[in-house]
Design goal:
Blueprint lengths: L13 H9 L2 E4 L3 E7 L6 E5 L8 H18 L6 E7 L8 H14 L15
Parallel strand pairs: 3-4
Antiparallel strand pairs: 1-2, 2-4
Helix pairs in contact: 2-3
Length: 125
C-alpha cells in the first residue's frame, strides 16, 4: 500500500474550496491559516492553498505542501469528518520543517469535534 494521501482524502473541486471560503470555521497560527467545515463524509479531506506571496520559489512552496500533506496523513484518523483548507502565510517560508510541523500538528488538535445532530438539549420541541 502506498504511503501517500489517497485521492478521496483531497479536496479537488473549485466549488468545495469556494464553500470553505464563505461558510466555515477558522483557526490560525504564525505560519498557517486553517478553514474547516463538516463534509458529511466519514473522513477528513485536505485542500492546500500556498500562493506565490509565501515564496517566489516553487521549491519552497512544494516543501511546505509536502510537510502539510505528511502531517495530515498522520493525523487523519484522529480528525473529525471535516473539509480543511490550509493556507500558508509569509512566515512559513524559510522556517525549518520541524517548526512548521509543530504548528500544523497543534492546529489539527484544535479542530473542534462535530456536535451531535440529534437534539439532546433540555428544551422539548
Amino acid at each position: 500500500m502506498p504511503a501517500g494521501l489517497p485521492r478521496d482524502a483531497r479536496i479537488r473541486r473549485a466549488g468545495d474550496f469556494a464553500a470553505l471560503r464563505h461558510a466555515s470555521g477558522r483557526l490560525g497560527g504564525r505560519c498557517f491559516s486553517v478553514r474547516y467545515r463538516p463534509n458529511g463524509l466519514d473522513h477528513a479531506r485536505l485542500g492546500l492553498a500556498i500562493s506565490k506571496r509565501v515564496s517566489k520559489r516553487a521549491v519552497e512552496r512544494n516543501r511546505i505542501k509536502r510537510l502539510l500533506r505528511e502531517s495530515f496523513r498522520r493525523a487523519r484518523a484522529q480528525l473529525p469528518p471535516v473539509d480543511v483548507v490550509v493556507m500558508a502565510r509569509d512566515a512559513a517560508a524559510g522556517l525549518p520543517g520541524h517548526e512548521l510541523l509543530a504548528e500544523i500538528d497543534a492546529l489539527w488538535r484544535k479542530l473542534p469535534p462535530l456536535k451531535p445532530t440529534e437534539g439532546t438539549g433540555t428544551i422539548a420541541c
